[in-house]
Amino acid sequence: MKKKLASLMLATVLCTGLVMPLSGCLQNDGAEGETTRMTVNINPSIELMVDGENKVISATALNDDGSVILAGEAMVGKTSEEAVELIVSISCEAGYLVQGNVTADENTVSVSVSGNAQAAAALYEKAAEKVQSALDKAGVTGKVERAQALALEELRKIAAECCDYTEEELNAMTEEELCRAIAVSRLETATLPTEALREAYYKAKDYEISFAEREETAKVIQAMGGLHTLVYNGYKAVLDVYGTAIDNLDQLRYDLLVSPDSAYQKSLASLRAAKADLLKQKQIVASLDVNGTEYASAVITLQLSEEAYEKALALYEQLGESANAALESAVAALRGYEAQLAALEENFSKDVQAELTAKAQELEDALNERKNAFLDDFAAKHKDDIDKAEAELIARKQALIEAIQN
Questions:
Q1: Which pTM value belongs to this model?
Q2: For residues 357 and 220, what is the distance between their CA atoms, to the nearest angstrom?
Q3: Domain chopping of the chain, boundaries
Q4: d(Cα 36, Cα 249) in Å, to the nearest integer?
Q5: Which of 66, 86, 266, 330: CA 20 to 30 A from 367?
Q6: d(CA 186, CA 337)
Q7: Closest by alpha carbon to 406, among 90, 95, 108?
């Protein structure tokens, strides 16, 4: 059972600066006021959520290289074209876009814009102009192309992965509403620098909401006292086991995917090293005369670097799949406890159901308080991991830039 997100919660996140201060709420007053989702794909892949005044309200890395580009950068508050220009400039400096003897096709920057068609076209044109300007300034031969905007169903899938809405609510949403929902979620996770941390956050929050809702239900039944004590005891017994299972799942997810000591994170470090070598070798090949004596051997070295990177990537993906398979087993146990709780809820007496209905607003308010506190609790729990990840990404970016400069 997934709790519906109250409209008050959305307004609170957007207007009170739960994660970051905003000049005002996202508006929905036509093409000029719509929330837009823009992505920039070079291989660093980055998502920008843009408000109706063309200001970036969140910047999220869609892959590990995207995390490198964003590390230590202030994208929020810039116009979308300013943010895109910065992304391309950093990508040139770090070697993701290669200077030298390459074709424009080898340095393609793809930009997609999802949202109101008229607004999207205008945003793309501005972004494309800045992309080309950044390429020219860096002396990089490249091009910009407009990627196909996401279909409604694709936006819905993204929202389902990171938002608190039910499937029924998501299916009823327009493209604009889905973009707004995604923007709210991205604001929540703006301080989490890696995909692994964001995924851990989304999953932990999902179960926290489910548990918190039922815990508030248990409190109502307990307060009724008398004969309802037996109902409360039975419900609370299953709820306690459910809570323990959630804690165990969170710990397992951390151990397998987030912990610096995990095989998954160690393989990510190896993958990053392989990627750095690959970028360096690409730059070397691009700097050489194709008819020169060093070119042929440099191409062979590049091929070896590509093979090493592909092997590192395959291992990284394999470990991720293995971790997810282990997590699925733990999730299956949780589903069993959820089924037990749902069965008990279906058999609540009429007076218990009436009391829960009467206190619906109090339950909703209490749940929203729990949601609001969750981010701070998660950030405090994983502060060392967050700080370490951010520092490593900044150091990696600097190392890539220095490798290109030298």
A1: 0.84
A2: 11
A3: 7-188, 195-405
A4: 35
A5: 330
A6: 30
A7: 95
